[in-house]
Specification:
With 189 residues, the chain is an alpha+beta fold. Helices cover 50% and strands 21% of the residues. Strands 1, 2, 3 and 4 form a four-stranded antiparallel beta sheet that branches. A hairpin with a 2-residue loop joins strand 2 and strand 3. The radius of gyration is 22 Å and the shape is flat.
């Protein structure tokens, strides 16, 4: 009886430790951008008129042309802001590579988007549609017979980035600046 309980307890402890570690990594991965609004709000209170990029601060009683213009352009006060942000997807993209009507290998891509900070919240609400667009693009590249076959070829790498960016800009015309392939792996089956 004891021989069966000890392995079960070890498995449960490993799962709990993995969950805690994963949650820690997930929350610490976005720590820099989570601190940015707090930092920007502090700057907005002290130097709102001097710093054009800190439009997310608390509204000031003093009205100046900068505050008026930014509130007209964006309800967040960031109309004049054009900072860069990085959109990280919740999971990787797994693309099957077909040969002779069967799956020959899998390509795993970890893709991030370099975006204008004004569209970051829009991207979070559109993530399923964006993932679908990227997967459709990657499946198309998979079926061309060469792009995902040799993923270490720099021309293929650039082709993946350019094609994904071009197709994303069809659904979101402004704000997506670049496609970043953070990790890439291929597993033969």
């Amino acid at each position: 009886m004891m021989k069966n309980i000890i392995p079960a307890i070890i498995v449960i402890l490993c799962i709990v430790a993995g969950g805690i570690g994963g949650n820690f990594l997930k929350t610490s991965g976005g720590g820099a951008s989570a601190d940015a609004p707090k930092h920007g709000a502090k700057e907005a209170k002290s130097s709102h008129g001097e710093e054009a990029k800190s439009g997310h601060g608390a509204p000031e009683k003093k009205k100046d042309s900068h505050a008026k213009d930014s509130h007209e352009k964006d309800s967040h006060g960031g109309g004049a802001s054009s900072g860069v942000d990085y959109f990280k997807f919740t999971r990787e993209f797994v693309v099957p590579v077909m040969r002779d009507a069967r799956v020959d290998s899998l390509v795993i891509l970890n893709i991030n988007l370099e975006v204008d900070s004004s569209i970051t919240s829009k991207l979070f609400s559109m993530e399923p549609k964006i993932r679908d667009n990227i997967m459709t693009t990657l499946i198309g590249l998979s079926n061309d017979g060469e792009t995902l076959e040799a993923i270490s070829n720099i021309d293929n790498y650039e082709s993946i980035r350019a094609t994904v960016l071009m197709n994303l800009q069809k659904i979101i015309p402004t704000g997506i600046e670049n496609v970043l392939i953070v990790d890439m792996a291929k597993q033969e089956l």
